[in-house]
Write a structure and sequence with these properties.
With about 350 residues, the chain is mainly alpha-helical. The protein folds into two domains: about 5-195 and about 305-340, 3-Layer(aba) Sandwich (Rossmann fold), CATH 3.40.50; about 215-300, Tyrosyl-Transfer RNA Synthetase, CATH 1.10.240.10. The chain is built from 15 helices and five strands. The strands form two sheets. The chain has a three-stranded parallel β-sheet with strand order 1-2-3. Helix 9 links the parallel strand 4 and strand 5. The chain is elongated and about 80 Å long. The two termini are about 35 Å apart. Mean pLDDT is about 95; it is low at about 345-350. It binds tryptophan. Tryptophan binds near residues 9, 10 and 150.
């Protein structure tokens, strides 16, 4: 028996992953994977992506390979983590069905992330039921694998809270069956909410303010050079402000030498340190971080058949774990009427 604690997490395949995903959760996943102390499952959430893209499945088909390449590129290793596709595990849909009975419409309406998404997608009058209920299907994703830890971005906290409530309700109604999960967030506040290169909002594909893990070196440089700094820092010798200065925010997130960074901040605040110099420093740091990621991505890109094979094999492994949980859930509710041979499991009462 493997009694390592399970980690489950995933992403909707609606585009490539960016630096916000990287510092917000991907880095954490790789660190946890490499401790060897956990059993990690990483899910490409293509069914959840369909809940607001039902009219464009091609986008999801295209993106799911990009997201998988991003996973492999940052160092998620198929020998250590099970990477799988949500749509290949129909057991998750059945679990969702049972959990739907444990959640009220009013409770779903209070979910702040879903509320914000409804607004952002102008769904006020045309909200798909599947989208509205995705927090319940996410609870199925997490509990199907008995996950204890869920490394995610901060916006996913309401989903973990919803899952915990479902687990408590289920266990109190039907007996101890499901594991109550916890979110794992980065320690630093900046990494929890990395702003976009416009410095305004969180980095997000829909706002077009991202640096992508798959951006080539020139694109990254060009994006860094276009970043906002202190608008009052006009001449090099002017004193500058490091607060609300996106370039320094990024240095806080990516520069590991805090002594050098503090010196730069003091120099900038005093005056005499030009924006170009600070941007070049940030660019060097980002390129050094991204170069090995790009290299690994390029390797896997040459062999997409291998990438699909990783997804297929991962999905087969994941399916057997989810099927086991589903069977426990059906037994707990008391609807496992027949044993596996379709004979009676209850003294012939139901046959
Ligand atoms: N909601 C996540 C996202 O928007 C994707 C996701 C689906 C997920 N199921 C999950 C994340 C289970 C963590 C655990 O990207």
């Amino acid at each position: 028996m493997n009694d390592k604690k399970v980690i489950l997490t995933g992403d909707r395949p609606t585009g490539k992953l960016h630096l916000g995903h990287y510092v917000g959760t991907l880095k954490n996943r790789v660190v946890l994977q490499n401790t060897g102390e956990y059993t990690p499952y990483i899910m490409v959430a293509d069914l959840q992506a369909l809940t607001d893209n039902a009219n464009n499945p091609q986008k999801i088909r295209d993106s799911l390979i990009e997201v998988t390449l991003d996973y492999l590129a940052v160092g998620i290793e198929p020998t250590k983590s099970t990477i799988f596709l949500q749509s290949q595990i129909p057991e998750l849909a059945e679990l969702t069905m049972y959990y739907m009975n444990l959640v009220t419409v009013a409770r779903l309406q209070r979910n702040p992330t879903v509320k914000a998404e409804i607004k952002q997608k102008s769904f006020e009058k045309s909200l798909p039921v599947g989208f509205f209920t995705y927090p319940i299907s996410q609870a199925a994703d997490i509990t199907a694998f008995n996950a204890k830890y869920v490394p995610v971005g901060e916006d996913q906290l309401p989903m973990i809270e919803q899952t915990r409530e479902i687990v408590r309700t289920f266990n109190s109604l039907y007996g101890e069956t499901l594991v109550e999960p916890e979110a794992v967030l980065p320690d630093s506040e900046i990494c929890k909410r990395l702003p976009g290169i416009d410095g305004k909002e969180k980095m997000s594909k829909s706002l077009g303010n991202g640096i992508y893990l798959s951006d080539d070196a020139d694109t990254v440089t060009q994006k860094v050079m276009s970043m906002f700094t202190d608008p009052n820092h006009i001449k090099v010798e002017d004193p500058g402000n490091v607060e609300d200065n996106t370039v320094f925010t990024y240095l806080d997130a990516f520069c590991s030498d805090k002594v050098v960074l503090d010196e730069m901040k003091t120099h900038y605040t005093r005056g005499g340190l030009g924006d170009m110099k600070v941007k070049r420093c940030l660019n060097d740091i980002l390129q050094a971080e991204l170069e090995p990621i790009r290299k690994r991505r390029a390797e896997y890109e040459k062999n997409l058949a291998e990438v699909y094979k990783i997804l297929l094999e991962g999905s087969l492994r994941a399916k057997s774990v989810a099927a086991d949980t589903l069977s426990k859930v059906r037994k707990a509710i008391g609807i496992e009427y027949f044993d596996q041979n379709m004979g009676s499991s209850q003294g012939g009462r139901y046959v």
